[in-house]
């Protein structure tokens, strides 16, 4: 199934049914009076988080959704039928944004969570509602109110406890295959991973965590180069980042340089994201001898001035992966306890999450605006080239040419 993490849709709630104007007409009963019923309310539109979905591909081609209108009121004081609500399932982790105002309407982070995105129209009133001692034959009704209509932008951010970060071919996909049942594609060429992959890592009985592998980043990713910029936002909802570095690159480059490239791209994309807890994982240790391995680890740690945890593994040989998984589980358990017992710590994490979300959304919007300007510039340039500048009315040559970049 194709992975789609951003879509735009249009939703329209149902209109309310009109009120009915009617009078009783029964044999031997004079002046029966009004008996027009109210209309029915229009159906509303909801989005509901469904844990069985992991992509927004269902909304890639069908983008207009309408709830049912309320029915018109009937005679004999019959109320029109209410329009049926429309419930649209989306993956857990979907953010709903009003496209017109860029306001975040809601964030569906739990299975079964439901969000009202378009309110159905209110029903109209029948003429029975307007009868009184002085108005025994009212001919007044009200129409149903129109339902809400909105253009929405849906953004999916995968929910994972741990996010893998690194250059292409750092061994992220091999690592997730080693510690979980996930089977992402593994090959010896860059950008093998094209979409995020999720894996569940079991650590003992009743203990597990979810790990996310995103496409590799390259230098310039924060400006839109490569594939990573589209998926960096998925790291915003992780609790821990594992920075995988190839400690024995085939081209003989310095592993510390590769680590610094990723750090710089993170800072450009979202400075707050660099404050997320991050562990350094030096991969492909099986490619080095024991002495070379220790020397390489010291060089990388000293060069980066790394103060956090450092792990040396071989994802291909599953060397060190079990110890790393156990350490991650302990970290997540301790983090959960601290959140429950220390309100200040919990609030600080929540504020960091909000800051990362805001910075990531602003950066992605900036890139979208830049792409739109480039497309507009290309279109304008094409229009300029298509004009015939030799057909001036004064016959004095061509018009001034403005080049649009």
Biggest pleated sheet: 6 strands, mixed
Spatial order of strands in the largest sheet: 10-11-9-12-13-14
Task: Sum up the overall morphology in one term.
Answer: elongated
Number of helices: 6
Write down the overall mean pLDDT.
83
Our Rg estimate from Cα atoms comes to 30 Å
- Spans of at least 5 consecutive residues whose pLDDT stays below 50 are 388-405
How many β-strand stretches?
14
Helix content: 25-40%
SSE-based structural type: alpha/beta
Order of helices and strands: EEEEEEEEEHEEHEHEHEHH
Name the beta content range.
Answer: 15-25%
Note the gap between the termini.
38 Å
Keywords:
alpha/beta; six-stranded mixed β-sheet
Task: Provide structural commentary.
The structure is a single chain. The chain has 405 residues and is an alpha/beta fold. 26% of the residues lie in helices and 19% in strands. It is built from six helices and 14 strands. The chain has helices spanning 172-179, 228-231, 255-269, 290-304, 321-341, 343-386, and strands at 6-12, 45-50, 64-66, 86-91, 94-98, 104-108, 114-118, 149-156, 162-165, 197-202, 208-213, 240-246, 278-283, 310-312. The chain has a six-stranded mixed sheet, with helices on both faces. It has a five-stranded mixed sheet with strand order 3-1-8-5-6, with no helix packed on it. Strand 10 (197-202) and strand 11 (208-213) form a beta hairpin. Helix 5 (321-341) packs across helix 6. The longest helix is centred in the last third of the chain and has 44 residues, at 343-386. The radius of gyration is 30 Å and the shape is elongated. The chain starts with 5 loop residues before the first strand and ends in a 19-residue tail after the last helix.
């Amino acid at each position: 199934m194709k992975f789609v993490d951003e879509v735009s849709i249009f939703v329209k709630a149902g209109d309310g049914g009109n009120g009915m104007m009617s009078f009783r007409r029964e044999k031997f009963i004079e002046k029966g009076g009004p008996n027009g019923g109210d209309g029915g309310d229009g159906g509303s539109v909801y989005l509901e988080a469904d844990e069985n979905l992991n992509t927004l591909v269902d909304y890639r081609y069908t983008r207009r959704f309408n709830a049912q209108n309320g029915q018109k009121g009937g005679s004999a004081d019959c109320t029109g039928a209410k329009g049926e609500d429309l419930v649209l399932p989306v993956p857990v982790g979907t953010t709903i944004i009003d496209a017109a105002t860029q306001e975040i309407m809601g964030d569906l982070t739990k299975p079964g969570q439901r969000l009202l995105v378009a309110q159905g129209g209110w029903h109209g009133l029948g003429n029975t509602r307007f009868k009184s001692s002085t108005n025994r034959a009212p001919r007044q009704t009200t129409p149903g109110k129109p339902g809400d209509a909105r253009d929405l932008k849906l953004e999916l951010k995968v929910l994972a406890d741990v996010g893998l970060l690194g250059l292409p071919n750092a061994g992220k996909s091999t690592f997730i295959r080693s510690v979980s049942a996930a089977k992402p594609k593994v090959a010896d060429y860059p950008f093998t991973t094209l979409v995020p992959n999720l894996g569940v890592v079991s650590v003992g009985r009743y203990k597990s965590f979810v790990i996310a592998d995103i496409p590799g980043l390259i230098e310039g990713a924060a400006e839109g180069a490569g594939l990573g910029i589209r998926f960096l936002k998925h790291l915003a909802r992780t609790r821990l980042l594992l920075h995988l570095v190839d400690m024995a690159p085939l081209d003989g480059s310095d592993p510390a340089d590769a680590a610094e490239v990723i750090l710089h791209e993170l800072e450009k994309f979202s400075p707050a994201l660099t404050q997320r807890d991050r562990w350094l994982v030096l991969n492909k240790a099986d490619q080095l001898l024991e002495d070379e391995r220790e020397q390489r680890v010291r060089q990388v740690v000293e060069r980066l001035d790394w103060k956090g945890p450092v792990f040396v593994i071989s994802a291909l040989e599953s060397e060190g992966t079990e110890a790393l998984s156990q350490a991650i589980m302990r970290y997540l358990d301790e983090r959960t306890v601290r959140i429950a017992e220390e309100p200040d710590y919990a609030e600080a994490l929540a504020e960091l999450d909000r800051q990362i979300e805001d910075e990531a959304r602003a950066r992605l919007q900036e890139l979208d605006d830049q792409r739109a300007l480039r497309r507009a510039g290309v279109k304008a340039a094409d229009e300029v080239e298509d004009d015939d500048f030799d057909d001036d009315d004064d016959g004095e040559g061509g018009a001034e040419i403005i080049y649009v970049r």
